[in-house]
Specification:
Layout: H1 3-25, H2 29-34, E1 43-49, H3 57-60, E2 61-69, E3 75-81, E4 100-108, E5 112-117, E6 127-135, E7 138-145, E8 151-158
Antiparallel strand pairs: 1-2, 1-8, 2-3, 3-4, 4-5, 5-6, 6-7, 7-8
């Protein structure tokens, strides 16, 4: 084998991992056409409770959201409750901490998003979460139980 043939063979072998990676990530034109652009709420969000009794960011963390929003308007989300969800922030963690679920937006637009969350074990008392965009990657929010006995003001930011 000539030196030139050896060099070409070596270059071909070196390129194999890159070619394999390209073939795994390539999409057909049909697959690309079926995708839609992400909507303005797309992404991961952390919601922090605005309560003067809470002194740490960890204590203020109320909800973490993973929002799937396409530009066509459909919004689905996954949520998990954190320590700030408890009514008394100075007491031990309540039964809602670690609660999680999925939801669909009841109303969605570029400036606001409203979602029903089944945080409580009481099926007749879901929470309504309303987010209103306040700046790039930020929003203000209200979390209110349907019966109205629990209401929090929250600050939301992208993670």
């Amino acid at each position: 084998m000539t030196v030139r043939a050896l060099v070409l063979a070596g270059c071909a072998l070196a390129a194999l991992p890159a070619l394999a990676e390209d073939s795994r990530t390539m999409q057909s034109a049909r697959e690309r056409a079926a995708e839609s652009a992400p909507g303005p709420w797309q992404g991961n969000w952390v919601l922090l409770r605005d309560d003067p009794r809470i002194r740490t960011r960890g204590g203020a963390a109320t909800l973490r959201l993973h929002v799937i929003h396409d530009a066509g308007g459909a919004v689905e989300l996954q949520w998990i409750a954190d320590r700030g969800i408890c009514e008394d922030p100075n007491a031990g963690p309540c039964e809602w901490v670690g609660g999680n679920g999925t939801g669909r937006a009841v109303a969605a637009g570029g400036g606001a998003l409203a979602v029903l969350l089944r945080i409580s074990a009481d099926p007749d008392d879901p929470f309504l979460l309303v987010l209103e965009r306040s700046g790039e990657g930020r929003a203000t929010a209200r979390l209110v139980s349907e019966k109205g006995d629990i209401a929090y003001r929250l600050d939301a930011e992208r993670e």
